[in-house]
Amino acid sequence: MRVLLALAATLGLLGGACAGEAPGPGTRGCPQACTMIYEPVNCRFANGTTMTFGNRCVADAYACRHRLRIVGCGAKAD
Fold first, then answer.
1. What is d(CA 49, CA 78) in angstroms, rounded to the nearest whole number?
2. Rounded CA gap, 22 and 19, in Å?
3. Least crowded by CB within 10 Å, which of 50, 52, 71, 78?
4. What's the CA gap between 44 and 48, in Å, rounded?
5. What is the DSSP letter of 55?
6. Which of 16, 45, 52 is nearest to 33 (CA)?
7. Global pTM value
8. What is d(CA 43, CA 71) in angstroms, rounded to the nearest whole number?
9. Measured distance CA(78)–CA(67) in Å, rounded
10. Cβ neighbours of residue 49 under 8 Å, at least 6 residues apart?
């Protein structure tokens, strides 16, 4: 039972990170949940900005919600 509560709390935190922002119009097809596997990536967007995300799924969800096009992503250098 304790494990299920911990898992639910963790997924709730992840969901809040991915879906914490109010969805804008046209975001229905955006990913709603991502795995918690930590594989950090740096992504560059068509508008010239770069950001680091916990994994590619989170980057794709962010880009979709903000209507940005990802130009490229690569492994985050330490």
1. 20
2. 7
3. 78
4. 7
5. S
6. 16
7. 0.63
8. 7
9. 29
10. none
Sheet holding 41-45: strands in order across? 50-53, 41-45, 70-75
Q: Hey, is 51 helix, strand or coil?
A: strand
Residue 39: how many other CB atoms lie within 10 Å: 13
- DSSP three-state, residue 44: strand
Determine the angle formed by the axes of helices 2-19 and 56-65, rounding to 10 degrees.
40
What three-state secondary structure class fits 68? coil
Alpha helix segments (H runs only) across 1-78: 2-19, 56-65
Instruction: Write the pLDDT tens digit of every residue in 47-56.
Output: 999 999 999 9
